[in-house]
Protein: 4Fe-4S dicluster domain-containing protein
Amino acid sequence: MMIKSRRSFLKVAGIAAIGMGAAPVMNLAASDSHGSTQPKTAKNEEALHAKRWGMVIDTSKLTEEVVEAVKKACHKSHNVPDFNIEPDAEKYSGNRPARDGQEIKWIWDEHFHYAFPDKEDEFLAEKFHDLPFLVTCNHCKNPPCVQACPTQATFKREDGIVLMDYHRCIGCRFCMAACPYGSRNFNFTDPRPFIEETDPDFPTRTKGVVEKCNLCAERLAKGEQPHCVEASEGAIVVGDLEDPDSEIRSLLAEHYTIRRKQSLGTEPSVYYIV
Structure:
């Protein structure tokens, strides 16, 4: 019955696309709690709003403990699988799911010369070689992933957040090829058996789907800060890049910051204080 209902829904959505255009239908599909990061509470009066969301990461405050806490908070709340654990036998049937070499990550630590290859210097300060740089989706102002996606499974909201509608993803991985930051991951196998403790408040993904950071759009819609911000002990700030009076703009005015692969013209919305 569930399968039949979903097929009926997709059929109606497809017909509606003729008269309504893809974006409205995409948003309608995104309201399904099993497949999208589009929050149902988008009209909540307590929701946090911005003309263009951005993030500032203060690298001087990134200790190993903070980095691990941020990754854990993000991945646990968004049901990101860990292929290093033994799979839950109750969550799959048939053959044991393959996992060799697989990794799904929404936010992770990276060495400076990998995160900022265009800023490498022969006499780079020694501290930068050892600093753990947290990297994630940059929610670019000009996101190449959106242009590459043939089904509009990847789309950018008016507030600058680049989201995914998992129902629309056909697993072509064009978005992965287009993203110059390696911020997208593909589920080669069912990820659900590798989730140690499933969070019922966020949808799980399926085999053949791409996923990435969504800037905790579901929390912003409820008036809450992203998980990474809460776990970072002040190292991460998220705010409105278009608001000159916002905290994030004050940080950008007070500190020298860099962005990843800025020369590509994607206009990343994540800044690093160095």
In short: The chain has one domain: 31-273.
